[in-house]
Amino acid sequence: MSQSENIDGSSAVEIMDKTRQAMVEMRSEKGFQQALVDECDLCNSIETEAEFQEPEDRPLKKKKQCDYESWKLNGFHQKSETLQNFCEASVNLGKLSLLFRRFIMAVDSQVFKDPVVTFGVLTDVQYADHDDQIAAYDPSKTRFYRGSLGQVDDAFKYWERPGSKVKFVLQLGDIIDGLNRFNGDSYTSLRRTLSHFEKHSSIPTFHTVGNHELYNFNRKELAALFYESVMKINIPQEIFSPFKPVKDNHPISTPVLYYKFSPVPELKCISLDCFDISVLGYDSQHPNYVEATKVLYSKHGHEIFDEWDCEGSLTGLDVRFQQMNGAVGQEQLTWLDQELKESDELGQKVIVFGHVSLHPDSSDWSCLLWNYEEVMKIFHLHKCVIAYFSGHTHKSGYALDSHGISYIAFSGILETPPDTSAFATVSYYQDKLEVHGHGMERSYNIPLQGLKDVANDDNDSAVDNEVEPPPPTTVKVEV
Ligand SMILES: [Zn+2]
Q1: Cβ-proximal residues to 309 (8 Å cutoff; 6+ apart), any chain
Q2: 453 C-beta neighbours (distance < 10 Å), count
Q3: Are 460 and 454 spatial neighbours (Cβ–Cβ below 8 Å)?
Q4: Do 328 and 375 form a contact (C-beta atoms < 8 A)?
Q5: How much distance in Å is there from the Cα of 458 to the middle of ligand 1?
Q6: Mean pLDDT for the chain?
Q7: CATH number for the domain including 377?
Q8: Which residues in 321-478 belong to E strands, given as ranges?
Q9: 16 and 32 in contact (C-beta within 8 Å)?
Q10: What gap in Å lies between CA 413 and CA 32, rounded to an integer?
Q11: pLDDT value of residue 470
Q12: What is the CB neighbour count within 10 angstroms for residue 137?
């Protein structure tokens, strides 16, 4: 809006008064009735209104002149003063109309300015009451086992600052380290770590299962511990209804560790169990364990459990077939498909999260889900998925697939020096996803208009490496 077109509140009142006065005069002049009918096109024309529109909104039609000379020429000399008032009133009505329209537009645009929901993300806390040590996989990195809980506190300090819109937190797995098992500290360490999340009950944390949890607990123990933790924080039933694990000592039965929740009606979040088919957390008689051993044997050519946890002779994308990874089973895939179908029907968008990466360009190949392509193909059957978030790889990574879905791997907290941080604040807008990385975490601004309606796409491929991801930028934030 240009300066000359600005109308403040007092001007608007003045305009309305003048308009009312002109209308009273108009009604008192009965001889004017016909003139008004004859000239209504002039005074109510879109051209008059168009004078007050933004240039790009104006119709191309030539603008008529609403001047008093043309009225005089038409034989209305004696009525010129009242006509002038009426014409001004009409022009003023046009201004009011524009003012009202701009107000409506401002309200509308606010819908796009404000995020639908904002939430926090952190991963790989891997707490242990253990001295710092050099990371075995990368000697340039140090693992700060005890310091990781301070990192969690710092992240919540940021998310709880005045004016924060953070509604919940996603914890992407490996909340405690496997070292705890050897120290006999599994339960103590998990409780100590969970208490750092539970004390922030106004910002509930949703956890996904990592391989390190399953080094410490079997699935039944873990399900019971997480259920107990969820019960301590305040999550409304309409957002999340956890399934209470039943006590059952049968070796084959197992609780389900994947779930969904809807923080707002416009968005569904789905947590995947990336170790559904794996050798972690199961009794050795469990069919999912047996299936996983067959997969690992077929790739490694031996049955030595400990040597399944390295690349060995594996090459290329096959390096993902290690015992620290797993696959999403058929039952879970069917459930995922149904959940995405429901979201399509509801017009919801979906963010899926799990510990292990899906897109080969988003992380090291040794950190990929065994059947990542099957999961991505399910995503591609629907138009609701906007992003998949993962941890596990301990460094930031991003990939965009051929269907416009973003795959983001987040930095791990464990290897974050005490003078910095590694967490993210994510805002979902109707037209974009904003990932605000803190400290070592990267930031991304991802437009969502490019999402394809893939239902009619015959040339579907799970991964399109020709699609260039937007360049990430790092934003440093003091916490
Ligand atoms: Zn992991």
Answers
A1: 322, 323, 324
A2: 9
A3: yes
A4: yes
A5: 35
A6: 79
A7: 3.60.21.10
A8: 349-353, 385-390, 397-400, 406-409, 422-428, 432-439, 444-447
A9: no
A10: 79
A11: 42
A12: 9
User: What residue ranges in 250-304 does DSSP mark as E strands?
Assistant: 259-264, 267-271
328 Cα: distance to centroid of ligand 1 (angstroms)? 16
Report residues near ion ligand 1: CB below 5 Å: 174, 210-211, 392
**What would the pLDDT profile of 96-107 be if each residue is shown by its tens digit?**
554 555 555 554
The pLDDT, as a whole number, for residue 15 is: 53
CA of 136 to the centre of ligand 1 (A): 14
Q: How far is the CA of 63 from the centre of ligand 1 (A)?
A: 68
Structural domain total, the chain: 1
CA distance 243 to 246: 9
Angle at 140 between CA 137 and CA 144, to 5 degrees: 80
Q: How far is the CA of 59 from the centre of ligand 1 (A)?
A: 60
Ligand 1 centre from 224 Cα, in Å?
21
Kindly give the distance from the C-alpha atom of residue 226 to the centroid of ligand 1, in angstroms, as a whole number.
Answer: 18
Q: Let me know if residue 131 belongs to a domain.
A: yes
- Rounded distance from Cα 179 to ligand 1 centre (Å): 13
User: Is 295 within a domain?
Assistant: yes
Domain assignment of residue 378, given as a range: 117-447
In angstroms, what is the span from residue 366 Cα to ligand 1's centroid?
11
CA of 176 to the centre of ligand 1 (A): 10
pLDDT score for 105 = 52
* Burial tier of 406 (Cβ tally within 10 Å: 0-12, 13-18, 19+): buried
State yes or no: pLDDT of 296 exceeds 50: yes
Residues ≥6 apart with Cβ < 8 Å to 39: 71, 74
Residue-wise pLDDT for 132-151, tens only, equals 999 988 899 999 999 999 99
Q: How far is the CA of 9 from the centre of ligand 1 (A)?
A: 59
The rounded Å distance from CA 367 to ligand 1 centre is 8
267 CA to middle of ligand 1, Å? 26
Which helix (DSSP H) or strand (DSSP E) does residue 118 occupy?
strand 117-122
Nearest-angstrom CA–CA distance, 106 and 128: 51
Residue 85 lies in a domain: no
Residue 478 included in any domain: no
Residue 277 per-residue DSSP state? B
* Look-up of token digits 């340039």: 140
Site of tokens 């990192």:
151
CA–centroid distance, 178 to ligand 1, in Å, is 10
Q: How many residues does the chain have?
A: 479
What is the 373 CA–ligand 1 centroid distance (Å)? Answer: 20
